[in-house]
Amino acid sequence: MERVHLVSLGxxxxxxxxxxxxxxxxxRDCALVDDPASADVIIVNTCSFIQPATExxxxxxxxxxxxxxxxxCQKLVVTGCMVQRYGAALEDELPEVDHFLGTGEYHRIDExxxxxxxxxxxxxxxxxxxxxxxxAPRVNSWAKHSAYLKISEGxxxxxxxxxxxxxxxxxxxRTVESLAxxxxxxxxEGVREINIISQDTTAYGRDLYGxxxxxxxxxxxxxxxxxxxxxxxxxxxxxxxDSLLEVIxxxxxxxxxxxxxxxxxxxxxxxxMKRGVTRAGQDRILERVRRFVPDxxxxxxxxxxxxxxxxxxxxxxxDFVEAQRFTRVGVFTYFQEEGTPxxxxxxQVPDAVKQRRQEDLMALQAEISxxxxxxxxxxxxxxxxxxxxxxxxxxLTGRMPSQAPDVDGQVFLSSAPGGLRPGQIVPCRIxxxxxxxxxxxxxx
Length: 444
Fold this sequence. Notes:
It is built from 14 helices and 19 strands.
């Protein structure tokens, strides 16, 4: 039995690709091992969204290559975005690697593992066209009660800072029926929370049905017995139809949560980024979302230090965040990514200025988050239990509907964990709050 160790880097979308590869490996009777030193095959699924991610990917590949040098590992396979970005050039740069699979070729993993030495091409990199379906033998790796559902692949937008369309291709949606079938299988395996992800969730279905059909997908998923929470990530701000907002507002299983990356607020910056919207337009979009769903939690991400960003532009971004009072915010410093239009723009911002602006914006959001969390003290909230805390064995952790896994903090439950299981939804009273996490007591 071939022993395989897999390292998955980057985003949740990449994680799903890794889960499909794991399913294929188990289907051919491979054994997964946690220790790379005991593996016959090591797979690294890479990220290359920004420069630090590429650097981490290279470092991880080199680290795993040492196990091959030591003799136990017989084959090293590198997959994912870094391979798609740099292609066959990696063959000379990383001679230790036996096979490279691009973002549209990860389904070939069993093929290259089964091939004898030299019998298969070293690199499989082409225009990304593949997206897995409900028949793929995917193995959920996040938690038994929570999973990601990748509804489409690729993106048709051309934001000037983003390399993703080059790495993942154009929009390719899965059918409502395929996604419902995969979700049903996940629920049959114990999943109670589905986190919907893609590069552009708002556009889901446009390529298949001629118009976005996220509303229809949500209604289909909501009909699955045993599924409790459905959460939306990565919604492009333009093109949110009323029908989608109505589903979020009226369907109990769709939690009032929307992850909507906005990137900036200054009109100059939004135009330079080719976001297709103004600050006033973003204000109107957010007002409409909140009109339909008054209690919605909105998470957004922003880029500081984009080429040409002045102090006035940054002050406008601060003003926007202060006015909108987002539930949560993530802040990236701009990286001059080779191959993107923004990399060629003049007036690149010094790193020290980028760092200071990131810290200032995060400090502002910390104040907003602290105030919002303080307002919850003494209130009863609903929490999905995740399990025993990694920090203390006598504490449980869970999340409110406004908290997505991995990115939004958690609720520490100050009661003995006996009797509560992961995935169970319980009423809690919030007793303490920080800007990121909360403490609550489970109510009888």
